[in-house]
Amino acid sequence: MDIGDCVIEAAGLRRRYGPQGGKGFEAVRDVSFTVRRGELFALLGTNGAGKTSTVELLEGLARPTGGQVRVLGHDPFTERRAVRPRIGVMLQEGGFPADLTVAETTRMWAGCTTGARPVGEALELVGLGPRRDVRVKQLSGGERRRLDLALALLGRPEVLFLDEPTTGLDPEARHTTWELVRRLREDGTTVLLTTHYLEEAEALADRLAIMREGRIVTSGAPSEVIGEYPSRIRFAVPVGWFVGDLPPLAELGVIRHEESQGRIELQTRELQRTLTGLLLWARDEGVELEGLDARTASLEEAFLAIAGAGEGTSAPEPKPEEESGPARRAVAGAGSRRSK
Ligand SMILES: Nc1ncnc2c1ncn2[C@@H]1O[C@H](COP(=O)(O)OP(=O)(O)OP(=O)(O)O)[C@@H](O)[C@H]1O
Known about the structure:
By secondary structure, the protein is α/β, with parallel strands linked by helices. It is 28% helix and 25% strand. The strands form three sheets. The chain has a six-stranded mixed beta sheet, sandwiched between helices. Strands 11-12-10-13 form a four-stranded antiparallel beta sheet.
């Protein structure tokens, strides 16, 4: 990668809360990642994982206690003047004067922004045009988030920091925001997003990182992160058949199987091969696989496994399927599900 393409660089970042020299609490522990120009990078993690603490370091709102951060080639804390006009920041809680109208608030903000968009344009972008004369205190929670976003977009930022931008938005408003974020990215804006909506990260992110207890435990393109987890095939065991009547599962690429209440679940890292083998077997035997459902792992499954795992764990190690295939009479609940 050409280093000139790198818009955000975090190297060994640390952030400790508490008195200087004291023990305090380390919320960010050796976090490193880069974000390229025009990329949308999502930072995920459970409550308290350290996302906001990290993003605040990137925004120059605090000085790291260790490591280095560069945004657009500058230190965002010590070279704030060089960085601030080129970034847009949407914080988790905006905090606006409640008695000003939407347009007045935006105008006030525009007055402090170099090269600001016209107020009407910024409000139209986030769908708040019709609400321009409403007082901020009369806005719904979702509308306030959209006003936050309009203010972050005022200066046509090269880098946009979105801290949980769609929290409190109804599904329609959320999708509208996604469309807007996609358009901004297509126009070359680099976006760093934190979100609790995994569907949002899956839909928008070019790359993502999952944080737990102040550390990044996994990162990559969504498909790479999901790809660490096995796909699943589920169906009802045909009446009069046993699991042991299936072809040897290990030979089909099955790495784990479970049977419960007449339904079987197979886990595989080779979904197409396993499914093809299973369907050919069913056709040859004239068997109907009722309720057949085959799917790759979702980001949510990957996230829950990572977030819920113990210290130092990133991806699950599946219990290997026996070489000779499963026992003829399946044991209910054989194999253990990943903890969620
Ligand atoms: N000012 C502070 N003083 C002391 N501890 C803090 C402070 N701010 C945050 N923390 C702690 O740092 C940890 C990380 O918090 P942070 O807000 O960065 O997490 P987060 O991943 O953004 O969480 P959320 O998803 O809930 O917003 C938490 O344990 C939090 O309690």
